Amino acid sequence: MIQNNRSTEIAAVLAVRLDAMRPGSRLPGVRELALEFQASPATVSAALAELTALGRVRAEPGRGTFVLGAAADSDPDFAWQSQALSGARVDADRASRLGGHGAPDQLPLSWGYLAPELSPTAELARIGARAAKHPRSWAVPSPGGSPELRRVLAADYRVDPTEVLVVPGGQAGLVYAMRTLADPGDTLIMESPSYPGAILAAQSAGLKLAAVPADRDGILVDRLAEELARTRARVIYLQPSYANPTGVVLSAERRQRVIELAVAHGAFIIEDDWARHLNIDGASPAPLFATAADGHVVSVLTLSKPASPGLRIGAVVARGPAGERLRAARAADDLGVAPLTQEIALDLLTSSAWPRHLKRLRHELAARRDVLTAAIRTTLPDVHVANVPSGGIHLWARLPQGADTRAIARAAHEAGVLVGDGRHFYVDEPPAPHLRFSFGAASEAQITEGVRRLARVLAGR
């Protein structure tokens, strides 16, 4: 404590001295200052560290410590950046809501991840401690990913492990696939409404977007055919299973049709398979990838959704020259995913805890989905739920025509409830007002209370 007081005293004396020095001037060395102040070098170094933290000086190893200019009285002028930067690609309004989950005291009725109690947190902690002791966790990562993890992830897609590319989460996989399969200025077709993160990923890749409507059986294939002919697009983004936000599953007939259209137009389908492990009523449909032997489908999967948002592990599955190009370009991004994270994912997927977790998760999601559906139907009679999803974590609800979803979402937020403004799920103007609800992040009691508060919000409008 005495040394800390002494270093603070020295820092105060030096701060006065700095006011009289020109920016860029070099301070005396530590030993010289130690003699001047009759203090130890450690105490002088602590004083200089305080001044560094305050932005008064800058230490340059091997050269010395230099005076920094005083902070400007006025705010910095960043106007030049607006001229230097090109037009913004990414919709900042949509991006600001993608990862936002509000304050701890708010009821999360729209959130893209599981509640903490639904994640295998204790098991992940045990696995993480064990994995940290493994030499592989601290080795140089392979750009393509751990061979052992790729082998496990390949099983659902019936591919060679070399055709699996490990990435840091599903969102990263979407950006990476879109950027690699298309050039800036190309058109990407997506179903509408759709996942806002996919819209942002396409914008980040510099792609133009063309939307095709969907219904309870998925994307309208006749409209997709028209859009492919009109735009000559070579990339289609789809969520064939438990789509966000609608929860729909692409029907077997339409699955075959979209593959046929991709073949006819020489196009890729990016299959966002984010909810593969979130089935509730029965097994998840087989990946669309499995029906496209000639490589027209590139699948993106994630473990962040069924396991934990902090487990940033996903994969891109691709065949042929597209797969080779994806794998070759991987090193340019980040040289690979942290081996420790991959070891944790591998141990989780191969442990007996994983199937137990998925079984418990299905039970919990079913209960919360049913509570949410019943609460909406009984408490919000003017809100219509067309599809009760058989998997995933989202429920799509229509409001009466003319409802202002922006204002409703804002008022709900002020009432302590998070709901998804349906506008953010459309590329263009929404054809009708919708809200997205999620049943994976809130408890049954929170769901009931959240819907009750929302009813008060709607009654006051």
UniProtKB/TrEMBL annotation:
CDD domains: AAT_like, WHTH_GntR. PROSITE patterns: HTH_GNTR. InterPro entries: Aminotransferase_I/II_large, HTH_trans_reg/aminotransferase, PyrdxlP-dep_Trfase, PyrdxlP-dep_Trfase_major, PyrdxlP-dep_Trfase_small, Tscrpt_reg_HTH_GntR, WH-like_DNA-bd_sf, WH_DNA-bd_sf. Residues 2-70 form the HTH gntR-type domain. Keywords: DNA-binding, Pyridoxal phosphate, Transcription, Transcription regulation. One of its GO terms (molecular function) is pyridoxal phosphate binding. In the C-terminal section; belongs to the class-I pyridoxal-phosphate-dependent aminotransferase family. PANTHER family: HTH-TYPE TRANSCRIPTIONAL REGULATORY PROTEIN GABR, TRANSCRIPTIONAL REGULATORY PROTEIN. This is DNA-binding transcriptional MocR family regulator. It comes from Leucobacter luti.
